[in-house]
Amino acid sequence: MARWEAAHGYARLEQHDWQRPLRGDWSARLQETLVDAPGPVVLVASGLGCLLTAWWAAHSPAAAKVRGALLVAPADVEQPGLREQLPGWSPMARQRLPFPSILVGHAPALAQAWGSECVALDDVVDGFSGDWGAGHALLQTFLKD
């Protein structure tokens, strides 16, 4: 997804402390960015970013600025090992998102809870390390006017 920045001019939200990610800090950074955004935004998140998106959307009026979200391979922080490594990230928010979303991964129950369209990861993997054209095609769903 980093290649999309250079190829398409998308902006990346740099988060604080990737070694000890704190949901509150990450949420505050997302909030600052969205409040300052001049217009509607489309979010692309993976791993913990998916969980951040869901938690933030359940708590922020700025979620009204979000046109849609592409959520890729959400982390399962409710697994015992990850719960201990990432305190504060569980339980995961399971409220319906207030904007359209596509969840790419093997998490149909989470997709249902978030109200997301669920696309199996196997259906769109054409090289995460490359341009990931299939993923970018899914993103276009939210970028159309």
Automatic annotation (TrEMBL):
Gene3D superfamilies: alpha/beta hydrolase. Keywords: Hydrolase. Signal peptide: none annotated. It comes from the Bacteria. It comes from Acidovorax bellezanensis. InterPro entries: AB_hydrolase_fold (IPR029058), RBBP9/YdeN (IPR010662). This is Alpha/beta hydrolase. SUPFAM superfamilies: alpha/beta-Hydrolases (SSF53474).
